[in-house]
Design brief:
Elements lengths: L1 E5 L2 E6 L1 H9 L3 E5 L3 H6 L6 E2 L17 E5 L4 H12 L5 E4 L2 H7 L4 E4 L6 E4 L3
Parallel strand pairs: 2-6, 3-4, 3-5, 5-6
Antiparallel strand pairs: 1-2, 7-8
Length: 126
């Protein structure tokens, strides 16, 4: 995990493996900021959708015991939204470096689409 200070708040950048492990342990809320179409085509199982075009930090879930981690396709949109959350007063926020592309490069499982049927299909690239 890398971190930097933005307006006095620590912005964390997590690796896909760190996100995978923390999600499996129930330690984080993973929020996908991609479009609904991108999410429906393929997404991390257990992630919530809050598209960048509708992103409003005031609607983020409470962080009582879980860290919020944002992700997108490449890490650009999620970092931008993490910075917007900090500007809105959120003091615990992280994003996944490299986004969903890095998740797939790390050969982590995700929900995809069976191109033959159009149905959701679990992808376990290991």
């Amino acid at each position: 995990m890398e971190s930097e200070t933005v307006d006095g708040v620590t912005l964390e950048t997590w690796t896909p493996q760190e996100v995978h492990d923390a999600l499996a342990e129930g330690q984080i809320v993973l929020i996908d900021v991609r479009t609904p179409q991108e999410y429906m085509f393929e997404h991390v199982v257990g992630s919530l959708l809050m598209p960048m075009s509708f992103f409003a930090p005031r609607y983020l879930p409470s962080q009582g015991t879980k860290r919020i981690v944002l992700h997108c396709g490449s890490g650009v949109r999620s970092e931008k939204m993490a910075r917007a959350a900090i500007a809105a007063g959120i003091d615990k926020i992280a994003h996944m470096g490299g986004g969903f592309g890095a998740w797939k490069e790390a050969k982590l499982p995700y929900m995809g689409t069976d191109m033959g049927t159009g149905a959701p299909s679990m992808v376990n690239p290991e």
